[in-house]
Design goal:
7 strands, single chain, alpha+beta
C-alpha cells in the first residue's frame, strides 16, 4: 500500500505539473519556453497545449482514484465511479478559470512589426496591399488581418495562411477580404496567437 500511494501520488503531482506548465506558458505569452520551440505553428501550439491539459487531467484523476481506493476499501467501486464522473469536470473547470485569469493578467507581448505602407487596391471586394517590416530579432507569423471601423467594431476579416515575417525583413502582403465596406475611416490590424503586430489607419473615399 505504501508504494502504491507513492506511485499514485507521483501521477497526481505530474498531472498538476502538466496543467500548471500550460497556464505558465499562457501567462508568459511564450509557449517557446516549454520545449525549445515550440512556437513552430499556431496549430502545433494548440495541439501541444491541449495534449498537456488532457494528459494532466487524466494523470491527476488516476492519482486521485488510486489513492482514494486505498482508503475506501469497502466502497472502492462507488468511489471510483464518483471520482471519474466528478474529478475531471472539476479539474477542467478549475483549468478554465485559471486560463482566463492567466490571459487577463499576462503581460502584453512586444510589438513584432510595423506597417510601412498600405494601399487600397480595390473596394469591391476590399483588397489591400500592405508592406510589413519586422522590428524585432525574432521571426514571427502573420495569419489574420482585421479591419475595424471608428467604433472599434470588426467589419472585415482575412485569414492569411501563416505568412512568415523573418527577423529584420520587410514583406508585402496582398489581403483579399472577400467583402465590401462603405466609405469611411478604418484601421487594419494583424493578429496572431500571443504575437503583437502593428496596425495602420486607412480611408476609403
Amino acid at each position: 500500500m505504501k508504494y502504491s500511494t507513492i506511485i499514485y501520488g507521483f501521477l497526481a503531482i505530474l498531472g498538476v505539473f502538466f496543467i500548471a506548465l500550460v497556464l505558465t506558458g499562457v501567462y508568459l505569452n511564450e509557449y517557446k519556453i516549454l520545449s525549445v520551440w515550440l512556437f513552430l505553428s499556431t496549430s502545433f501550439t494548440t495541439r501541444f497545449g491541449l495534449s498537456f491539459v488532457l494528459g494532466g487531467i487524466m494523470l491527476l484523476t488516476i492519482g486521485i482514484v488510486g489513492i482514494g481506493r486505498q482508503y475506501f476499501k469497502n466502497h472502492r467501486k462507488l468511489f471510483t465511479v464518483l471520482a471519474i464522473l466528478l474529478v475531471p469536470p472539476l479539474i477542467f473547470t478549475s483549468f478554465v478559470v485559471g486560463y482566463s485569469f492567466a490571459i487577463s493578467s499576462s503581460p502584453a507581448p512586444p510589438l513584432r512589426s510595423e506597417i510601412t505602407q498600405l494601399t487600397v487596391v480595390d473596394t469591391d471586394p476590399l483588397i489591400l496591399s500592405v508592406n510589413v517590416k519586422a522590428i524585432t530579432s525574432k521571426d514571427s507569423i502573420i495569419d489574420q488581418a482585421w479591419v475595424f471601423n471608428d467604433n472599434n467594431t470588426s467589419v472585415a476579416y482575412c485569414f492569411n495562411e501563416g505568412s512568415v515575417l523573418p527577423a529584420g525583413s520587410e514583406i508585402t502582403l496582398n489581403l483579399n477580404f472577400s467583402t465590401s465596406i462603405p466609405s469611411g475611416n478604418y484601421t487594419l490590424s494583424f493578429a496572431t496567437w500571443h504575437v503583437n503586430h502593428g496596425s495602420s489607419p486607412f480611408t476609403i473615399p
